[in-house]
Design goal:
The complex is a heterodimer. By secondary structure, chain A is of the alpha/beta class. In chain A, about 50% of the residues lie in helices and about 15% in strands. In chain A, about 40% of the residues are buried. The chains are: A alpha/beta, B mainly alpha.
């Protein structure tokens, strides 16, 4: 994912409510780090625009007329895995949140988040990390507790160090925080994460987090 | 007299007033931020926020009126 290094982060907003869409846009554009490069009112339009403007990140609503945010995330993630997807939702609809993460979303945030939180979440997703609002993480856990039908790849082949990194990740720590907690470099954290994702057959941090929580590797 | 079922009511609230309140909150966030950077622009923000709050309030009133009329027309 590009973005940092002086260039503003290019954001596409997918949101069906015109006033909300406009409000998000105005809020984002107050920040010199961000530029809104497209506005879509449904999933299909988001996909079409993403192809044209190649954003760094899509802020994706879930409930939209026509193609919803989960389906759009799934297709976008297959086509352009380097584009970050941050779900911006009005409700923490549990089952849908799990579906969104499985579809490839990198994080989610409630629409009542502060400008500061939104900024932080965008920066984290664009730098390749994930972002979950604590209240939504709780809902995610409740939903997972009711689901036992998912494949559980074994985690026994993780090294003790990798398990520590995974636990820290699942607690919502950033790479920098993990590095500091385990007294290792950020680069080493990234190396561990790459190895963990490969062993667990997961597609990024958000899914690794889900996996760790589901497997009871971490208490949240 | 048409009735309104709870699901329709929930959807109507979600697509209407709830979205508008979300938007207002975003606009208030923007206003707060802009106040530090550009007080004149912030003033314009505030006017828009007031107008939109009024519009949302009216919409909610209309919905309440509709619900009351329904209740009157078909007492259970």
């Amino acid at each position: 994912m590009s973005g940092p290094n002086g260039q503003p982060i290019r954001i596409l907003i997918a949101e069906d409510h015109a006033v909300v869409r406009q409000s998000v846009k105005v809020m984002l554009e107050l920040e010199p780090e961000f530029i809104v490069v497209g506005e879509a009112k449904d999933g299909q339009q988001a996909l079409d625009l993403a192809e044209q403007v190649d954003p760094d990140l899509v802020l994706m609503d879930i409930r939209m007329e026509g193609m919803d945010g989960v389906e759009a995330t799934r297709i976008l993630h297959q086509r352009s895995p380097s584009i970050g997807v941050l779900i911006l939702t009005g409700f923490g609809e549990d089952a849908v949140l799990v579906q969104a993460v499985e579809a490839g979303a990198h994080g989610f945030l409630l629409k009542d988040a502060s400008a500061e939180e939104l900024k932080k979440a965008i920066l984290r997703v664009v730098s390749g990390e994930s972002h979950m609002t604590p209240s939504l993480l709780r809902k995610l856990l409740d939903e997972l507790a009711t689901r036992e039908d998912m494949p559980h790849p074994p985690h026994s082949d993780l090294t003790p160090r990798e398990r520590e990194v995974l636990e820290a990740l699942a607690r919502g720590l950033s790479n920098e925080e993990i590095a500091s907690e385990l007294v290792i470099s950020e680069k080493t954290v990234k190396t561990h994460l790459g190895s963990i994702f490969g062993k667990l057959h997961v597609d990024g941090r958000a899914q690794a987090m889900l996996y760790a929580i589901r497997e009871g590797l971490v208490e949240v | 007299m048409p009735t309104i079922d709870p699901i329709t009511l929930a959807n109507e609230l979600h697509d209407g007033v709830i979205q508008e309140l979300s938007a207002l909150l975003l606009q208030l966030e923007t206003y707060q931020r802009r106040l530090e950077m550009d007080p004149e622009a912030a003033e314009a923000d505030l006017q828009r926020i007031k107008d939109q709050t009024r519009a949302s309030l009216n919409e909610l009133r209309k919905l309440v009126t509709r619900l009351r009329e329904m209740e009157k027309a078909s007492p259970l």
